[in-house]
């Protein structure tokens, strides 16, 4: 597979660099156009619309981008954010802070809004991932430009990528993956240990600040690939092992020097956590999803995909019946290659791992045990949503399809025709549809006109009701992030310890308090409680803990009337200011 480099260079020399350059430009523009098509509904109003497939994670990445804006424009710490979950704050390294994306985009976030940055990151992530794979295919792995286009389209716009574009900015930006993979494989070349190791280390550091889960997937996949290749070609591996391992050592040293402190901060600084707020067997790959169509494909059926997937952002396989068939056909065509066989083995291993500790079929968990049960509680592994391991075989499928398409000329005319028909039947039904969006609640003039500044002095917080949380109060977190965290708010949707110091299990929300639980219960049930003097005392204690300066009722909130009545009972009459009702707290006199 890797020996294609010299042949590719010779082909370019024969056909003319200018022609290939023009073709490549059109390919890249096509990737960008397809990415814009997928995200077009969000682009129509990026600060006003929210991705319908996962409005929770849309909100958390608005927070990440707003944090990047604060780092650049306000000098905030890159690893800690004090304006969400006040007064405790958030360990940003223990979250997917995407600092490698949020910091360069800080000017966009500052002047155009975090919503524009979300749309830009998702669009460039899809197109950029396809472009990076196209570079690897066309430059190093295949001789045919159409084969390179085919592989790049799959790797950049496969069902798993379109699915994660529903709010997972970290998983959509995978353009470093082919670069990292290629640099690892090049470590076997003479004289590459130091230079190649340093380059690889720098790429690893960049990937850490985009998404560490992806880096884990790369490491596991390459480990299985190398182990498989060593079994198939032991003599070849022995000849290059010393310089390969030396290069890995240089890469590890480079990345630890540059990322050592951020990683320490992630795992040991305040706000760190261990494990996830769910069990490994809750979010796994369903066996039947491998041959099903995803909900965002033209052939997709929502009801089927919902049964076979954990959420709209986790359609990590969904190759379709003909897609699965052509992946198998491609693997068969390439089976004589030890590299291809090793890639297939790596893909199968990670696919089985993604299915969790017990096999799930058609949404039903069976009693059939799977190997993941043996490693599910290992450190780092216990931080991963298990079904995401299936992103690896999805990418390997694209590699196999590209390599097989590159060899189609070696087939007979009849087999070439059948291969073309099979690829058409595989790819056309998987063509993506634009991602669905919903209109977000408009920001009130109380915020957009800066009126809040009259009520929230430095060191105090604005308490929106419902309070920002993973399941409720999404509008409140969106308010704060679209204002680039200019004011601090309590609670929020982020990852942190459930109830420190006694319980440091990972949680999607701040530790429970009486007032936050009371308001959540009211919003969900619509029932107004009878507050006692003790209840009002607890509410006053919580507002003091949050350093509240003003309480603001979100007008569009579910059961807003009942929430309002409860606030009046606890805090007295409100005042309408800038399109919202507010209650001034503490040493600010009510007007």
TrEMBL record:
Record keyword Translocase present: no
Keyword annotations of the record: Membrane, Transmembrane, Transmembrane helix
Taxonomic source organism: Actinoplanes regularis
Protein name per Swiss-Prot or TrEMBL: Glycosyl transferase
Coiled coil: none
Superkingdom in the source lineage: Bacteria
Segments passing through the bilayer: 23-44, 111-136, 193-210, 216-232, 244-264, 318-335, 342-363, 383-405, 417-435
């Amino acid at each position: 597979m890797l020996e294609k480099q010299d042949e590719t260079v010779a082909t370019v020399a024969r056909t003319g660099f200018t022609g290939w350059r023009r073709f490549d430009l059109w390919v890249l523009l096509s990737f960008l156009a397809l990415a814009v098509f997928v995200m077009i509904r969000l682009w129509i109003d990026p600060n006003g619309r929210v991705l319908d497939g996962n409005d929770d994670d849309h909100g958390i990445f608005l927070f990440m981008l707003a944090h990047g804006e604060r780092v650049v424009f306000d000098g905030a710490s890159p690893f800690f954010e004090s304006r969400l979950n006040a007064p405790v704050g958030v360990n940003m390294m223990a979250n997917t802070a995407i600092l490698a994306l949020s910091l360069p985009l800080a000017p966009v976030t500052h002047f155009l809004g975090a919503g524009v940055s979300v749309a830009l990151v998702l669009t460039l992530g899809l197109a950029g991932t396809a472009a990076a794979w196209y570079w690897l295919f066309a430059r190093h792995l295949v001789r045919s430009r159409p084969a390179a286009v085919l592989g790049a389209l799959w790797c950049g716009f496969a069902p798993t990528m379109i699915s994660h574009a529903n709010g997972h900015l970290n998983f959509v930006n995978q353009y470093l993956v082919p670069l990292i993979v290629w640099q690892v494989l090049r470590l076997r070349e003479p004289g590459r240990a130091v230079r190649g190791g340093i380059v690889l280390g720098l790429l690893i550091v960049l990937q850490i600040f985009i998404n560490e889960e992806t880096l884990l997937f790369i490491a596991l996949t390459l480990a299985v690939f190398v182990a498989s290749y060593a079994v198939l070609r032991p003599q070849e591996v022995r000849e290059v092992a010393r310089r390969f391992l030396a290069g890995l050592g240089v890469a590890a040293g480079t990345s630890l020097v540059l990322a050592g402190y951020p990683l320490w901060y992630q795992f040991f600084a305040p706000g760190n956590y261990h494990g996830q707020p769910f069990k490994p067997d809750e979010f796994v790959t369903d066996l039947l999803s491998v041959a099903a169509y995803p909900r965002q494909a033209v052939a997709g059926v929502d009801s089927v995909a919902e049964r076979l997937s954990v959420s709209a952002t986790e359609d990590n396989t969904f190759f379709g019946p003909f897609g699965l068939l052509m992946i198998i056909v491609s693997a068969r065509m390439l089976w004589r290659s030890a590299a291809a066989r090793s890639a297939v083995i790596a893909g199968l291993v990670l696919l089985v791992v993604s299915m969790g500790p017990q096999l799930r079929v058609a949404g039903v968990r069976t009693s059939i045990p799977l190997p993941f049960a043996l490693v599910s509680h290992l450190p780092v592994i216990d931080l991963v949503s298990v079904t995401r391991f299936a992103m690896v075989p999805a990418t390997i499928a694209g590699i196999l399809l590209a390599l097989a398409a590159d060899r189609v000329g070696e087939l007979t005319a009849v087999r070439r025709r059948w291969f073309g028909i099979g690829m058409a039947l595989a790819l056309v039904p998987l063509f993506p549809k634009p991602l669905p969006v919903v209109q977000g609640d408009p920001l009130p003039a109380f915020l957009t006109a800066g009126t809040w500044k009259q009520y929230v002095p430095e060191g105090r917080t604005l308490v929106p009701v419902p309070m920002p949380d993973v399941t409720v109060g999404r509008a409140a977190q969106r308010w704060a992030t679209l204002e680039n965290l200019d004011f601090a708010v309590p609670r929020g949707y982020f990852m942190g310890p459930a109830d420190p110091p006694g319980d440091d299990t990972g949680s999607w929300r701040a530790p429970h308090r009486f007032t936050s639980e009371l308001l959540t219960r009211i919003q969900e049930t619509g029932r107004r409680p009878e507050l006692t003097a003790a209840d009002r005392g607890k509410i006053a204690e919580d507002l003091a803990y949050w350093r509240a300066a003003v309480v603001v009722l979100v007008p569009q909130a579910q059961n807003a009337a009942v929430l309002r009545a409860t606030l009046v009972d606890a805090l007295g009459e409100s005042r309408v200011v800038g399109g919202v009702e507010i209650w001034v707290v503490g040493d600010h006199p009510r007007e």
